[in-house]
Amino acid sequence: MKGLMIIGSAQQNSHTRALGQYLIGQFNTHDCCDLEIFDLAEKPIHTLDFTGVNEVPEAYQQHAKELQEKAREADFFILGTPNYHGTFSGNLKNALDHLTMDDFKMKPVGLVCNSGGIVSSEPLSHLRVVVRTLLGIAVPTQIATHDHDYGKTEDGKRYLKDEEFQLRARLFVDQIVSFVNNAPYDHLK
Ligand SMILES: Cc1cc2nc3c(=O)[nH]c(=O)nc-3n(C[C@H](O)[C@H](O)[C@H](O)COP(=O)(O)O)c2cc1C
């Protein structure tokens, strides 16, 4: 089974990305599921625009097409976002606006976010509403970290350092794997 993690941070080497890397490692311990990252800071896409007035760079169009193809193929999703002004990022919302119910219908969706100020799960509550609207199944366990939960390697790469969050990440992955394998909502597709 294939999973797609969409990361909505505006910066490369984000904390959210580091969490995604940790999640990939956990999915690799399960034979059934692989997780691929689509990091919008590395593959930016254009703002959704039906006016035809604005010229869209070729690379942005390519990234959007790639996102749509990967989303259609995915068996499950993880949505990862920084906390921006008390909610999830505009970049992530824009990416979701390029997708449809056909991409999400009855697929399990895990939600994770990172805050730099006061740690908050509110961006995830907001995302739950969006996932429901897209007919996805947002799983109950979610992860809301803070910058302090991460370390940096000598070459400047971020990684998830906090052991309690490492444990939570493992439980989070186990739960998604269980949803994917049992597919409790598959008959409703
Ligand atoms: C536009 C913007 C708004 C932000 N708003 C909040 C906020 O409301 N609360 C908070 O705790 N941090 C806020 N931050 C800080 C980010 O959450 C912080 O930089 C975090 O490290 C981002 O995670 P990332 O590295 O995964 O992108 C904001 C940052 C930006 C750029």
TrEMBL record:
Signal peptide: none annotated. Its cofactor is FMN. This is FMN-dependent NADPH-azoreductase. Residues 1-145 form the NADPH-dependent FMN reductase-like domain. Homotetramer. Belongs to the azoreductase type 2 family. Keywords: Flavoprotein, FMN. InterPro entries: Flavoprotein-like_sf, FMN_Rdtase-like_dom, NAD(P)H-dep_reductase. It comes from the Bacteria. The keyword ATP-binding does not apply. One of its GO terms (molecular function) is oxidoreductase activity.
